[in-house]
Each structure stands twice: as C-alpha cells, then as structure tokens.
Amino acid sequence: MADRFAIFAGFLSAVTGLSVWAVWANSPEWYWQLLVAVVALLASLCALVPRVKNWAEQAGLARELASQYGRLVGDLTDLTNLQVIDQVRAGRVVDDFQITKEKKDQLRGLRDRLVIKRDKAIREAKAATP
C-alpha cells in the first residue's frame, strides 16, 4: 500500500512539475493556477500518508517475518523427513515459530489468516442466501 501511495505521489509531482510552468506562463485565469496548486497539494498528501501510517516500516518488518517463516518451513520440512524426530530440535522449531507468530501479531494492519477465512465464509454465506 505504501508503494502505491509513493508511486501516485511521484506521478502527481511529475505532472505538476511539468505543467506548472506552462500554466503560469500562458494562462492568466486563476482556476488553472488553482488546479495546479491543488494537484501539488494532493501529491504532498499522498507522500505523507504512508509515513504517517508507518506503512513502510511495517512492510519492512513483514518482509523480515516472511523470511523467518520461510526458514521455519524449511526446518519443519527437515524434521518431517527424519526417521526419528529429534524432540529437542522440534521443540526449538516450535518455540521459534511461536516467537515469529507473536511478532507477526504485533504488526498493525495484518489480519490473522483465520479471521480472513471466517470473513470470507460469512460473505459467501450471505451471498448464497436469497
């Protein structure tokens, strides 16, 4: 989401930058000047939203957690391929998983997978009822 706002802000800034001089130099009408000013204001607001909402930092933490989850999936896969499961090693993997899940749960805006499934089921049930 932060990337979308940043791209949109950059696009608006580019359009504003390209048009501002032409509008001011060639148009005495106040409404064209106002339009350029409003677009410039929108560009700055689009750049501020991700910073205020802290989306960039949240995205960085989410990428880090995705890497940790990937490592844990590998560890769990390795455990399932063993003839005899090492209980100590399995316990460490489960503990690491719980710690990683707690970190994920602390991120704002990331909904739990079970909540997403429940909401989807509710929507589908409402759509199926006449």
Description:
This protein has 130 residues and is mostly helical. It has two domains: 1-53; 59-130, no CATH class. It has helices at 2-26, 30-53, 55-80, 87-106, 113-128.
Would you summarize the structure shown here?
With 130 residues, this protein is mainly α. It has five helices and no strands. The longest helix is centred in the middle third of the chain and has 26 residues.
Features:
130 residues; mainly alpha; 5 helices; 0% strand
Question: How much helix, percentage-wise, in residues?
Answer: over 70%
Separation, N- and C-terminal Cα atoms = 35 Å
The biggest sheet, with number of strands, parallel, antiparallel or mixed sense and barrel status, is: none
Radius of gyration: 25 Å
What assembly state would you assign to the polypeptide chains in this entry? single chain
Residue fraction in strands = under 5%
Helix/strand-derived category reads mainly alpha
Could you outline the blueprint of secondary structure elements for this entry?
Elements: H1 2-26, H2 30-53, H3 55-80, H4 87-106, H5 113-128
Helix pairs in contact: 1-2, 3-4
